[in-house]
Sequence to fold (165 residues):
Amino acid sequence: MERINHNIEPVYDNESKILILGSFPSVKSREMQFFYGHPQNRFWRVIAALTGYSVPHTIEDKKKMLHENHIALWDTIASCEIEGSSDSSIKDVVPNNLNKILETVPIRAVYCNGTKSYELYHKYCEKQTGMTATKLPSTSPANAACSLDRLIEEWKVITEWLRAV
Fold:
């Protein structure tokens, strides 16, 4: 088990209205230095489907899609012990200070990508932020029981905030 620090900066700007939180970057994401870097992770396909964008492939295009749709993106964990990319192996958590975003931009809702992110947000961050989060099904390839169509359907809840912008 290895202690790893999160070193990917959050994506947000002054127009961000919703915050989507993962748990901790996968090995592939840490290698790429950006969120949801594993080619089998369906995050970018889900967000593209919900926003009417083409699926982005470059980090620049991913950031552009997020900014243009008022979506902030980060992770719940600042550092932890983890084996590979396995959320179930996460131990000794130090949470991110989400107020770095919440105190500077008008976030209206917080969504967690998967159960682990939601559990950690509830345990470590909810009191600090004063905002409850909504748990969404994980876009991870480990969540194979959930089809892309089902993910898109369940993630539609984020569009109510996107339309209100």
